[in-house]
Structures are given as C-alpha cells and as structure tokens.
Fold this protein.
Amino acid sequence: MTIFLTGRSRWPGAAAIALAVSLPVFAARGEIDGHGPDAWRVTDVASDDILNVRMGPGTDYPVIDTFAHNERGLEEITCVPFIPPAYYMSMTEAEIAALPPRWCLMRTADMIKAGWVAQRYLTADFGDEEAWLAADVPATPPASTTGPQAGSGDDLIDDARNLVVDLYRHADPSRGQSPFDPGVLGEFFSGDFIAALRSRPPGADLLTGAQDFQGSVSDPKPDPDQPMFRGMIAINVEIENFGRTHTAVFRLRSDTARPDAPLRIFRVEQDGWSFP
C-alpha cells in the first residue's frame, strides 16, 4: 500500500497526504489559494439532491448556481476562515469550537461554474487512486475486538503500527480534521509530546518532514532490525518528496500518565532532525 501525496504544497507549504491518495497535514484548516489536492468532489449530498453554490461564504448570500450530488474535478480557489499554524496551536478548544463553519470558493475545471460552498460537502477527489478506501488501507478497529492487523506476531507492535496508520488517515482537511487538533491529540501522542508542541515554532511538518511536499508516503511498518527495545516500539514510514526519499521513524511507548497506559507516540524522527 502506498500513500500517494499529490497536488501542491499546503500550509504554509506542507502538502496533502492520504493513505493511497493525497493527504493533508498539520493545521489542515489553513489550506488557501488553491493549495492542496488538484481536485475536489462533492460528498454527503443525497443522490436526489444538489449542492447550492452561493455568491459568498455563508447561507446569507444568494444561490447563484448548483453542483451535482456527485460533482467531481472541482478546483479550490480559497477557503475561509484562514488560521496560521502558529496561531492555531495557541487556541483553546473552546476558541476552535467557536469558529464559524468553513466555506470554500470552488469552480469547475472548465470554469463555467464557480461560487462558495460549505466545506463539509467537499472531499479530495483522487480518481482511481481512491482504492485504499475499499482495499489497500483497511479500517483500524480496536485491537481488542479484531486482533492485530499488521501480522508481526506481536499484538503490541501491531497496535503501534495501526496507530501510525490512523495518524496519517486522520490528516484529512477536506473533512476538517487533523491529528493535531486539540480534541484528538491525546489519541496519538503522549502528554510530554503534546506539551512540547505548545512551544514548537512553525517549521517542517511532523508527518512529512517538509514544508513543501509533493510525493508519496509508504505503508507504516515496524522497524525491520529492532521493532521493540525496552518497551519502546519503532514504526518506519518511507517518505518520497520531490524525488528524494528518507525514512520517518515514529517511536511509541505506553503513556503511564493515562488510564490503562495506552500506546502513544512520544518522538518523531525525520531526515536530520527529531521532535521533541
């Protein structure tokens, strides 16, 4: 399974990532001026309905056109509100929850129709590369009910691998989600890691190791030489960016500060640097 990262760079230059498609990363709310996947499609609209296209970003503006319930190949011009990543990290959960709904200025590829639509009805359009949704990247239900997925022979290592798969899967700005949203940070990262994020200046993205990204991300796999050492698990992800490849290493261990001590990422190592 390959995580194809197509399209141009995203906030401020971090590109889109997705498991076997494009998938956007940290501070996903910051896509602007057409950055991100090359195309978008309408989603969550009934087959007997249409999506209203408005003159401005909100329901107070008049409807000037419509998109079909399954419209594809849409181009994004810009979205509002725009939140710089450094400012986003300083916001409280209450401030984030109080933000107005996100709207995007979209147009068809032939430029015949254009206007504003609610972002919740948009998702990245990856054409035939969307096979991961049905096959290449199976859903990751709790290991307690389904058992390990990666087949390493060690449930703990498989749980760690699945957590990193979910980390990349959750980086989907087309649905307004990011693994770095305050409400879900604790599902992926240790308490110490989260604390360090608060003082981290803007820089290379933690999932791709780059500010500008166009390439692919491989299926996360346990480190072949030393997947576990003294209770710490290493999960490797091969990242290809603009023709150059490096290995990102996600290190996980039980977070004893949390109830039941769940596995969490406590360190990320990219090409020549690490965090925290």
